[in-house]
Write a structure and sequence with these properties.
Distance between the termini: 29 Å
Structural class: alpha/beta
Order of helices and strands: EEEHEHHEHEHEEEEEHE
Number of strands: 12
Largest sheet: 6 strands, mixed
Helix content: 25-40%
CATH architecture: 4-Layer Sandwich
Shape: globular
Number of domains: 1
């Protein structure tokens, strides 16, 4: 039976709450400034301390990892992410392990990036992840029929979550909002794109924007 997945929109950032047999798995956590909205969505779904089995971070940017430390502490939820992005959340530095100049960045993303850095500097609560996930990491131990796909490009440690039903939750690897684009490493992104095109993906759920049935 497929997990019920609810999209939680936190000011333009999509988090995804998957309801499993006896609890929940959260994909991304949003900005700390939007915590009240996240908590309202968790409460509505019946997610509370003790039944949030896992919070998975698709990459280390503060708009996706901003509530991770809170959930780790207050919900007793283990936090998982790829090792290549761990320095971002441990040091509160969203440029950690990225190129000095991104290979591709739209004008809108330059503005957004500046705003994110300002917010992160003042609000981001650093943390140490509990679980290091890598390509092929099986989420069934947390009640979710899905596996992790390592898709570097936006960041070195960017990951996606591919459900057994073919739905892919891909963080910022793909944007469906016009004018939004940030690629740290184009060569890595192209390799990740080729990798995704070989997988049985039916629908893509990005970190920003609406779902799409195309991987491009």
């Amino acid at each position: 039976m497929d997990a019920k997945v609810t999209t939680v929109n936190l000011g333009g950032v999509n988090c995804y709450l998957a309801e499993c047999a006896d609890g929940f798995v959260l994909i991304d956590t949003g900005f700390s400034l939007k915590r009240a909205r996240l908590l309202k969505a968790l409460q509505k779904a019946g997610c509370k301390p003790g039944n949030l089995h896992f919070a998975l971070i698709t990459h280390g940017d503060s708009d996706h990892a901003g509530n991770a430390a809170f959930l780790q502490r207050e919900y007793r939820a283990p936090i998982g992410m790829h090792l290549d992005d761990v320095g971002m959340v441990e040091h509160g530095d969203m440029n950690w392990n990225r190129k000095p100049k991104a290979d591709k960045m739209s004008p809108i993303m330059k503005i957004v990036g500046t705003m994110v850095r300002l917010v992160a500097k003042e609000k981001f609560e650093t943390f140490k992840p509990d679980v290091a996930v890598a390509d092929g990491f099986d989420l069934s131990n947390y009640g979710l029929n899905a596996k992790v796909v390592h898709i570097p490009g936006h960041s070195k440690g960017s990951i996606g979550v591919l459900m057994d039903n073919g739905n892919l939750y891909c963080g910022d690897f793909l944007y469906t909002t016009p004018g939004m684009n940030f690629v740290d490493d184009m060569q890595a992104r192209n390799a990740s794109l080729a990798k995704l095109k070989k997988l049985p993906i039916k629908e893509v759920f990005p970190g920003h924007g609406k779902p799409t049935q195309s991987v491009r």
